[in-house]
Amino acid sequence: MQSMTKKRTAAFLIDTAVSTAVTLGVEYFLRKKVKNEAVHALVTPTVVLWALEYAQLRKNGQTIGYKAMGLTLENEDGRPLSECQIIKRMAYRDTISTFDYLKDRHAFEQQGQRLPHDSFAGTFVKEK
Length: 128
Prior knowledge:
The protein is mainly alpha-helical and 128 residues long. Helix content is 73%, strand content 8%. It has 7 helices and 2 strands. The protein is globular, with a radius of gyration of 15 Å. The model has no long low-confidence stretch (mean pLDDT 90).
């Protein structure tokens, strides 16, 4: 696995840990209002992860994990990241990208800067 892919994996794990901590706090308050366990198991963690990632990427092109690993997400054409690009990237990464990985793992690992969800959204990751 390439160095960039390792850094991206570590950054995502950091972001997931931060998101989990925030989710625990949100669930503490939601448990009193929402009794459906499926919401707590599926919806809340996804919404919190996406909301945190969206806000951080929209503000400065980095999440906490990306900042810790010295990475930044940029638009292919040099403009600031758009709302649509960020949402497309997150949705593709959490759905279709998994199947891309299962179909052709070696090609997936070769890319480093541009994984399939980056190509789909028109973004790339670079080291700072």
